[in-house]
Amino acid sequence: MNKHRIYFKTVRQLGGRGFIATTALILIALGSIASVMVIFTASMSYADSVTRREYRIQKLFNQKACEDTRDLILAKDYFFDGLAYLPEFDCSIER
Length: 95
What we know:
By secondary structure, this protein is mainly alpha-helical. The chain has one helix spanning 2-76, and strands spanning 83-86, 91-94. The chain has one domain (2-94). It has a two-stranded antiparallel sheet with strand order 1-2. The mean pLDDT is 85.
C-alpha cells in the first residue's frame, strides 16, 4: 500500500512540473512575441516619420526649383502668356 502512494505522488509531481514548464514556455514565447511587435511598431512609426520629413523637404526643393524655372521662362520669353505645366516639379506656371 505504501508503494502505491509513493508512485502516485511521483506521477503527480512530474505532471505538475511538466504543466508549469509548459506554461512558463508559453508565457515566455508570448512575451517575446509581444516585445517584437512593440519594437516593430515603433520602428515602423519612426520610418514613417522619416519618410514624411523627406517628402516635405523634397516638396520645398521642388517649389524652389519651380519658382526658379518660372523666373527663367518669364525672363527668356517676354511675350509668354498662358499656362505651362512642369511635370518634373508638379507645378504650373501662369502669367
